[in-house]
Write a structure and sequence with these properties.
single chain; 805 residues; alpha+beta; 36% helix
Length: 805
Amino acid sequence: MRLLRWLLIGVVVGGVLLLSALARLGVSPAPPSGDKVVEGLDGPVDVLWDSLGIPQIWAGTERDALFAQGYLHATHRLWQVEMFRRIARGTLSEIFGDATLTTDRFLRTLGLHRAAAAGEALLDDRTRDLLQAYADGLNAAVAGWQGRLPPEFVLLRARPEPFTLRDVLALEKVMAWDLADYQSSLDLAAAHARLGEAAFEWVRPRYPEDGITILESAGLEGTREAGLQERAIAAAVPAPETATGSVPPAPSAARRALLAATRRPGPLPGARGAAGFDFLSAAGAVRASNAWVVGPERSRSGKPLVANDMHLTLDQPVIWYLMGLHAPGLDVVGMSLPGTAGIVAGRTGGVAWGFTNAMLDDTDLFLERVDPADPARYLTPAGSEPFRVREEVIGVRGGRPDTLAVRSTRHGPVLSDVEPRAGGELLALRWVALDPSTTPGALLAMNRAGTAESFLAALEGFTDPHQNVVFADTAGRWGYWMAGRIPDRPGGMPPQVPVPGWTGAHDWGGYLPFAEHPHALEPPSGLVATANNRQGRGGVSDRISAGAWASPDRAQRITDLLRAGEPHDAASLHAIQLDVTSLFALRHREQAARAFREAGFPEIASVVAAWDGIAGPESRAATLFHAWYEAVVEALRHDVYGESTGYLSGSAVERALLDGLPAELASAAAREALRTGDRAWGAVHRLSLDHPLASVPLLGPLVGFGRRDLPRAGTPHTVNVAEYRELEGEFIVRAGPSQRHVSDLADLDAGGFVLPGGQSGYPRGPHAFDQFPLWEGGRLVPIPISRTGAEARTTARLRLLPPGV
C-alpha cells in the first residue's frame, strides 16, 4: 500500500510538473535590454521599447536599421515568420506530416517561391543589399538564440532553417495570394456549370447601380449622371431568358417557403480549397478594409488627415508588428509584416498612407485542350506546344517523400491536377502576381518618401497586391491612387467563368499604365473614402472587376459621417472607425419586422421595427435581424440549388430583398430565426482569435494558444467590421480590423495605432494580448516619429553592437 501510495504521488507530482512545464512554454521573455553583440551589424543600433513592447530602432545606416528589424521580428514572431516561409515554399508537411500534404501539393503547383525568384532578378543593388540585411537580421537572431525556442517549435520538435533573400521576397506573394480572387473565380465557375446561363446571371455579383464609388466620394463623378450611365450600360446588355422567353426577377424556386424544421448545416468541407489557409491561419484575408483621407478644408488643424483599418482574419499572433525605423534618410513608423522589410502602412516624417483592397479580378482561369495526337502537348493559336513539366519532391514528416509532376501552359500552372473543384476540366491559372514584381523596392522607397510627389513616384512600382491607396503630406498635398497591375484584357471587363485558352481571344495584352489607374488629387469634395467599393463608373473601373466589389454600405456611411461632422481631427476619424451602425440593416429592417409580424410574433416585430441599426453587443434586434437574414440566405440558396451548398453572392441576396421576398418565405425565415433565441448580439456574436494549435485538446488552452468567445459588436456591413460565420445560431467572428491607424499631418505624434492583440508571438507573454482591450475599447497608441517623443515613452533600452565595439 505504501508503494502504491508513493506511485500515485509520483504520478500526480509528475503530471503537475508536466502541466506546469507546458504552461510555461507560452511565456515569453521580457523585451531584451542592455547591450548585445550581434554579428552582421556595421555600427551600433539603439532600440527603445515602450510599455506595450513596441520598438523604435535608431541606426547609423538604413542597412543596419533593416538588419535590426529582422532581428526583432525573429525575436518576437519567429513561428509566424517560419510559417510564412513554409507556405511560400510548400514545405508544411516537413513538420505537420501528411495532414498538410494536399496543401503543399497545391502550393508547389502554384509556385509562390518560384515567382519570387523571378522578381529577384529585377532588384537593383541597393534594394538587394537592404533586403539581404533584413534576412541576415532574421538569421542572426536564430543563430544567437538563448533558451528554448517558441512553443510551437518545442511542441512540434522543429527548428527554423536559415532565411534567404528569396524567402523575404516570397512573403509578398503569400499576401498577394490571400488577396487574390481565385476562390471566387472557382465558386463562380462551379455555379455557372451547375445552373446554366440564366440562373447564373441571377446569383453572380453585381455592384448596385446607385452604390457610391470612390471617385464619387471625391466629388469627381455625379451620382445621378453615373446612375443614368450605369442603367444605360445595363440596358445595352441583353438580359438572360428562360425557356419561355421571360426574364425571372429571381429563381422561380425562391417562392417556396423555408421548412421550419430544416437546420442550417456548417460550412462546406474544404470550402477554401486545397490551399488550406483556414487551417493554417497564415495571412487570412477577407479582401476588405477602410481607408480615407480628409483635406485641409475639412480638418481642424488645417492639414490633411489619414485613417486606415485593414480587415483580415484575426489570428494569434496578429499579423502586424508595430515599430519605428530611423536612420539617415529614413524615418517611418507603423505596421510591419514579420518576414518583410520595412513598414507596410503608416507614416514617415512627411507622408502618411493607408490601404484597402482594390477588389481586382487578378486571376483568369483558362480552359486548355490536350492535343488529341499527343497527351504531352496542348493546343494554342499557333498549333500544339508541349506542357512545361517540373518535378517537385515534398518532404513528409513520418512518411516517404511525395513526388509531384507540375504541368504549366503559356498561361500558367495547371491547377486542376491539384484542385478537386476543377470538375474534370483542364484549368491553367493566369495570375498577376506570378509575373516578376518590384513591390519590395517600392515599399522601401515609400518608407523614405517625404512628399506626396515622391510617395507617388515610389507607389508606381507597387505592382502587387492590388490596393486603393490614400495618402497626404505635411505640405498639405493629399489624394488617392489605385496601385497594383490591372490586366489589359482584350474584352475589357474580366470574365467571370473559365475561358478558352486555345483561341488566344482572351490572352492578356500586358498591363494598363499607372497613369490610367483610378486616382484623385486634392478633389473638390475635400475627402476620398475607400471601403473596397467600386472605383468609378465605366472606363477603367470596368477592367478592374466584373462586379465583385464589396457592398457600398461602409463607403457610404464613412462618406456621410465625414461630410456631416466637420471640422475633423484624429479623434473624430477614430470615432468613425468604431461606428457600428448598419445601413444595410436599416434598409431591410421593415421587411424583417413584417416577416416576424406575419409569422405571429408581434412583440419581436416591434423590437426589430424600432431598431436604430446600431449593432452593439447588447442589441436584441441585431440578433433577430441577422438570424432572419441568414435564414433568408439559406432559403434562397436552397431554392437555387435544391440543397444547402452553392455559391450565392451577397448582391444577389440584396436584389432579392429589394424586389420583396415572397411572404411565405420571409415569415418561414422569421420562425427559423427564433431558433437562435431572443438574445443580445454579444451573446451570440463572438470573436475567436485562432491559432493552428488552439484546437488541440488540453494542450491548446494550457499553453494559451488563441482566445475564444469574446463578445463583438458590429456586422459585415458596419464600418467597424465583424465578418462572421453563422453556425447553429451562433455567429462566429473570425475577421475584422487587423489594425487601426489615424494620422494628423499637422502633428505627426498625434493619432496613433492599435492591434487586436499584441506584439508578442508567445501566447502567454506580457505583450501577447495587451492591446486587445484598447482595440476593443476604442483607443489608439502613440508611436512618435521624433526621437524626443519616443524617449518620453521609453520603458526599456536595447543596444545592438557589432563585434569589437
